[in-house]
User: Fold RNA methyltransferase from Meloidogyne hapla.
Amino acid sequence: MFNRKDRLQINKKLKKRRNGPQGNVNWRFSLPGSILNNVQTKELRAYITGELARSFAIFCVDEIIIFDETAKIKQEKINEYKEGNWSGQDPINSNNCECLLNPLDSMHHLRATDIDLPFREGIVLEKSSKKGQKCFVGLERVNERDVTLINSELITPNKRVTLKLEEPKGSKKLKGYLTNSKQIREEAGIYWGYSVRIAKCLSEVINNSSYDFIIGTSERGTPIEEINIPKKEGCKILIVFGGLNGLEFAIESDPNINLKNPTDYFKNYINCLPDQGSRIIRTEEAIPICLTSLKYKLNSF
Assistant:
């Protein structure tokens, strides 16, 4: 199934990239859901959301944390979002706004003819065999469409899973093991998408995880050239954006934060684009600017 020569070339490039100054960084991004509050139409809201997703994918961001800058969201509501139990119709699907979205085309969005990588996303099927459950992975040839899951606990049908495919030995039928994006990145150096979680408030984003370097962003921050980013293997960098009223509003609204000045809360409070020519840089514009500046700075080490 796999083209060994092509795979070796891919792995060689990925190893070089992984060992580079920015290949060791784990990017985390946090921003409030209110950034879409002043978007005029549902179509534009869908498009901007898609562009944010593309920026995160292009720059290999590992995790997105959406927080409530008013600190009023309840845990029950967060659980509903996690389970997908939203009331009413899906605003994107019900109004055909998906046609406005540009495809992410990430490394894990493989085409039917992509057979060089042993990793693939799949959907667990209703059917199974004595050897295990069947999983549809969307390959072009008929005998490669369904993969048998090996050494796996029973999985609910129609669930999306990440697989590592086995080289066929004697049998033409494909077999695979369950894996995840973290294992793929550690083993092969391939970026395999980002995860998303929801936080009740800003302090929950900062306090509930371990980061090596935390950055707050604002036009009132210190120029990015003046900060020093640690060069560390697997360095976890969290970048926090404010909403329409800035990080100041999120800090004031958070009952767990006793400070009022963002410069006191964030040791690294930066401005990614000093001397900007527009009064306001929108979040969907600021994110790629910020990541470009940070990656350029890491490359200059």
In short: The chain has two domains: 16-105+193-299, 119-181.
